[in-house]
Write a structure and sequence with these properties.
Structural class: mainly beta
Largest sheet: 8 strands, antiparallel, barrel
Order of helices and strands: HEHEEEEEEEEE
Helix content: under 10%
Number of strands: 10
Length: about 200
C-alpha cells in the first residue's frame, strides 16, 4: 500500500514542474455530493490541449448509528487529459488513477464491478456486510465540458478501468463478527461526475 502512495506522490511532483499557470480551474462534483461526500478538484493547463487534474473527497459520516449504516472513506484521483479542441472546452479523453481507504456498511450498491479472478461475489454485498480496507485503480476517461456563464463551466465525466482492493469483511452491525479477508482484481467505474467549474485564470 505504501508503495502505491509513493508512486502517486512522485507522479504529482514530477508533473508539477510542467504546469501552466495561464489556466487554473477549481471544481466540485455534484454526483459525489449526492452521496454526502464533500469534494473538490483542481485542474491546471499544461499545454494547449493538455491538462492535469487532481481531485479528492472525504466522507466521515455514519448515516444510521443503530444500523451502523456508513460510507466512510477518502479518495484521491489524479488525471491527465487531452482535449480535442481547446483546454477546458468540448470533448476530452484522459487517463486516471485512484487511491481510497474505506469503512462501509449497510449501503445497497449496484453490481457494477466484474471480478477478474476466483472469489465469492457476495463479498461485495454492502447491504448486509461491513468492509474495511483500501483500493487502487486506473482507467480511461471520456468527458465533455461547456461554458454556462462567465468563468463558469459544467462538465460530464465517465471513466472505466481496473481496481485492486484488499479489505476485511464483517457483519454489518457495530462490532460485527469477522467473516473473511478479501483480495481481488475487478473491472468497474473509475470516474463518474457532473461537475461545476470555476475558472480562476
Amino acid at each position: 500500500m505504501k508503495r502505491y502512495l509513493i508512486i502517486a506522490v512522485s507522479l504529482l511532483l514530477l508533473s508539477a514542474g510542467t504546469m501552466n499557470a495561464q489556466k487554473v480551474a477549481v471544481k466540485t462534483n455534484a454526483l459525489y455530493w449526492a452521496s454526502a461526500t464533500p469534494n473538490a478538484a483542481f485542474e491546471f493547463a499544461m499545454a494547449d490541449r493538455w491538462t492535469f487534474e487532481v481531485s479528492g473527497g472525504y466522507n466521515p459520516w455514519t448515516f444510521n448509528k443503530e444500523k451502523n449504516t456508513k460510507m466512510k472513506h477518502f479518495l484521491v484521483s489524479p488525471e491527465f487529459r487531452y482535449w480535442f479542441c481547446e483546454s477546458f472546452q468540448g470533448h476530452f479523453i484522459g487517463v486516471n488513477a485512484n487511491y481510497t481507504q474505506f469503512n462501509m456498511a449497510g449501503i445497497p450498491v449496484p453490481k457494477v464491478f466484474v471480478d477478474l479472478g476466483p472469489g465469492d461475489s457476495s463479498a461485495t454485498d454492502l447491504k448486509n456486510t461491513r468492509i474495511q480496507g483500501w483500493a487502487v485503480g486506473a482507467g480511461l476517461t471520456y468527458g465533455y465540458a461547456f461554458p454556462i456563464a462567465r468563468r463558469w463551466n459544467m462538465e460530464f465525466t465517465l471513466g472505466y478501468g481496473w481496481w485492486y482492493t484488499e479489505y476485511d469483511q464483517f457483519e454489518s452491525r457495530e462490532c460485527g463478527i469477522f467473516q473473511q479477508s478479501v483480495c481481488k482484481h475487478v473491472l468497474g467505474p473509475t470516474a463518474l461526475g457532473v461537475s461545476f467549474i470555476y475558472m480562476i485564470k
